[in-house]
Amino acid sequence: MQQHAAQILNNYSDQVVFVTAEEIEQGTDLVDEARQGGSEIVVIPRNLRDKIAAHNINSDDGEKVRIFSEFVSERNKNFEFKFIPTADLSLSEKMVLSKKEKIFSLIGGKPSNVKEILISETMQKDDYTFRPAEGLWTHTNGRITIKRSVLNDEERFIAVLLHELAHATSGATDATRRFESELTKMLGVFGNAALNSSK
């Protein structure tokens, strides 16, 4: 009954976003952004959100109920990166970015499907935390995009790059066993190489 009511309300107005209390807490800035864009926020229980999400999987775009994940997906589709040419980076940022070649050598070379690594001032929101991601692997163009602020910390840069490389080599998304296994394997190779190079 609740799901049917949500479907009717969704059909009545394309400016409704159904969210759970947890999503409001985790993605406050995105919820505020939806409100500022003229959307009405309707709070629903988690079990109803899950039922709607399952329904949306097999529905055409015009029939999908606009739950929070749909709003985030729409926003990300319209997102534009602000890429920063290497020449415009500061000297310290360039030095950190240059570490990528050493990282590639430690893991046995740059994966063949990784075509380029770009730096962006802005990043899409993460689908899990709803905060700007620090790195992104895009398999369609073989691109790893890293948030510029990551270059302020060499250790963070290494961690983010390894994370995205694990996505590239595994072909898996976050929070999957295949991705975790690949990341663990890569960290082992990286750690072993680092230890041997320090002898």
What are the main properties of this structure?
Zincin-like; two-stranded parallel ribbon; 5 strands; 199 residues
Q: Quick recap of the structure?
A:
The chain is mostly helical and 199 residues long. It has helices at 2-12, 21-26, 28-36, 46-57, 68-77, 91-97, 100-106, 154-170, 177-197, and strands spanning 16-19, 40-43, 116-120, 135-138, 143-147.
Can you walk through the features of this model?
By secondary structure, the chain is mostly helical. It folds into two domains: 2-77; 86-197, Metalloproteases ("zincins"), catalytic domain (Zincin-like, 2-Layer Sandwich), CATH 3.30.2010. It is 50% helix and 11% strand. It has helices spanning 2-12, 21-26, 28-36, 46-57, 68-77, 91-97, 100-106, 154-170, 177-197; strands at residues 16-19, 40-43, 116-120, 135-138, 143-147. A three-stranded mixed sheet has the order 3-5-4, covered by helices on one side. Strands 1-2 form a two-stranded parallel sheet. Strand 4 (135-138) and strand 5 (143-147) form a beta hairpin. Helix 8 (154-170) crosses helix 9 (177-197). The relative contact order is 0.10. The model has no long low-confidence stretch (mean pLDDT 86).
